[in-house]
Amino acid sequence: MPRAILIALFAIAMVLACAAPASAQEPEGPIQPAPGNHDKKPIDLTPPMQQKPITVQSTEVVAPVTVLNRDGDLVLDLEQADFHIFDNGVEQQIIHFDLGGDPLAVVFLAENSSRIESLLPAVRHSATLFTQTVMAQTGEAAVVTYDDEIKVRQSFTGDNDAVEDAIHKIPEGSSGAVLYDAISESVALLARLPERERRIILIVSEAQDAGSQKKLGQALREAELANVTIFTIGLSTIGAELRNPQQSTQQQTIGPPGTFPVPGPPGVPDTPQTQAQAQGGNIDLLSTAIWVVKTASNAVKNHALEVATAATGGVHYATKKDSTIDKAMDKIGAELHAQYTLGYRPPPDAQSGFHDIRVTVSRPGVRVRTRPGYYLPQK
User: Fold this and answer.
1) What pTM did the predictor assign?
2) pLDDT in tens, 356-365
């Protein structure tokens, strides 16, 4: 073989030898399975941020449960096995159980309308007790006020001093009182927080609403779906009027004249007399709360705060004197930190409409209080 051809072949061999390592350093694509072997899947080397995220939707229903003995004292020694929870009569598996330990998030919602001008000093005075007994050392709170408008005076914070300062500085507002809208806005604030936090609205106000676009039943539907419990401290409208005789509170009706918008006792025909008793006297708060949520309507006259607590598992305290505001605040704080929390996940095919919640305890002689249910909208 001529010398020139040998030199050329040697040069080609050297080029190929140098090119092989370089090609081995290039990144490989997905590994394809060998012919006849379908057990191995290609390895996806796509960066994690570019992969399609996997989303899982889950809905947990949270039921706050207060258990009292015959003397009205809180029962604090029950275990998860002592509780049974039912959704529309079907027992559910408890997936979360706690006694006062879950993080607490509270909206302090206060009316600051000119109608209660004389009561505002007592509301401001309750600030210290609120931070000490309700927030305590581990809770966070926001301060919201309402008159004609709803204003966030302090966003959620664990700084007790900041919350106390915001309550101390609540100003007097206009003559309006958009209570139902304020409840809805407070629910929206709480709904943005982590699900594991216990969501509370503590309302300090009159029971009257003036000017809301939202109906009470709609606001309470939202509260139930967001697992929000409402506690209320009712300010005395009569007391405010006595101190401010020039102020007057307009009473609102919830239906046209001659109609019977409020359900009466079972088996009792609706008459003007029974309707008057339902709207202003003794009423079955639990049944009324369920009715208000089911129909997305407004509450019976003078009972909006009581209905809100009955619908969400909280407690209403009516106050006659300034000092009773502090006493009510203290009781609410004590209950919040001694409340059981039960969580369950309803089936994904749960039907829309109102779902009844019932909790039983395997201990005789105790009283159990929880939310009566929740309204599930159509998908």
Assistant:
1) 0.75
2) 999 999 999 9
